[in-house]
Design brief:
By secondary structure, this protein is an all-alpha fold. Helices cover about 75% and strands about 0% of the residues.
């Protein structure tokens, strides 16, 4: 049981597109508005854990993973563009400015967290060992599967939440709009790099291998 939790923490709390986005919204002073996004991430992981735990990995073939990966890469790039275009004017209250320029706020909805995690191939790959190997080995099925999936989904929701908190602590110490704008561009660049990495590993290589 401890091994399941340890694996889940390691897989969920390492840097990835969802956690990088959480870091960015924290830096931009929107920690209080990020609950919906985090819940969306947790809901997506809950759905994957239940689906894979009940149906196994049979429904995920190579072609399906390629399609999910391609859609995920496109969505990550879309979010990166939104981050790069977000406002960081500190001449007045930061939250007011971000509300008036509804770019970064757009990224904090439940739907965005849900869709981003559902289209994140790394979420599927991280979930597969849990649902198809570790759960059966520990005798987790039926009602206990639902309980475990719910508990791990809470941990999944806490992953971007922890990055939001870290970003918020950093953002509170930044008084320059230029620095925050630079952070936005860096985060956007990192998200594009993640998208390219996912595209190469899970789209380009499989297509060329076949």
């Amino acid at each position: 049981m401890l091994g399941i939790v340890a694996y889940a923490l390691g897989a969920m709390y390492t840097p990835g597109p969802v956690n990088l986005l959480g870091l960015n919204v924290g830096i931009n002073g929107q920690a209080k508005k990020s609950l919906g996004f985090c819940l969306g991430v947790g809901t997506a992981m809950f759905a994957y854990l239940l689906l894979l735990g009940w149906a196994g990995a049979a429904w995920i073939d190579d072609e399906a993973l390629i399609v999910v990966s391609a859609l995920g890469c496109s969505y990550i790039v879309y979010l990166a563009i939104k981050i790069a275009c977000s406002s960081a004017d500190l001449s007045s209250d930061l939250n007011t400015q971000l509300n008036n320029h509804d770019h970064t706020a757009h990224l904090l909805r439940f739907r965005d967290g849900l869709v981003m995690q559902l289209l994140n191939p790394k979420a599927i790959i991280a979930t597969l060992p849990l649902a198809t190997l570790q759960f059966p080995a520990a005798g987790i099925e039926g009602i206990s599967l639902v309980v475990w999936a719910f508990g791990l989904a809470i941990l999944a929701a806490g992953a971007p939440g922890s990055y939001v908190l870290m970003g918020s602590l950093v953002g509170q110490r930044i008084q320059s709009a230029g620095i925050i704008k630079s952070f936005n561009w860096v985060m956007a660049g990192l998200l594009v790099a993640v998208a390219l990495s996912i595209g190469y590993e899970h789209v380009w290589l499989p297509l060329n291998a076949s």
